[in-house]
Amino acid sequence: MAKALATHEMLEVHELLIFKTSCVTKAMAMRELVKDEDLRKIIDEDIQESTKAIEDLRSILEKQQ
């Protein structure tokens, strides 16, 4: 069984979750302005990876409750 996170660790995970959510929001907004296909692919990959990170961080927080 996983060890419980300390309060400061939970806060850090929550901080990361907020940061990643902000990054995805910004990337999605900027994606609409990008004309270059290579750059758009990079942004799409970043959105996918960040979305996965958000899911993982949420899972960590849910397990702690």
3D structure, described in words:
The structure is a single chain. The model has no long low-confidence stretch (mean pLDDT 94). The radius of gyration is 15 Å and the shape is elongated. The protein has 65 residues and is mainly alpha-helical. It has helices at 7-31, 37-64. The protein is built from two helices and no strands.
Key features?
65 residues; mainly alpha; elongated
Order of helices and strands: HH
Number of strands: 0
Average pLDDT, all residues: 94
Q: Percent range for helical residues?
A: over 70%
Give unreliable regions as ranges: none
Distance between the termini: 14 Å
- Gyration radius from CA atoms, angstroms: 15 Å
- β-strand percent reads under 5%
Principal-axes geometry comes out as elongated
The number of helices is: 2
Summarize the biggest pleated sheet.
Answer: none
Structural class: mainly alpha
Question: How would the blueprint of this fold be written?
Answer:
Elements: H1 7-31, H2 37-64
Helix pairs in contact: 1-2
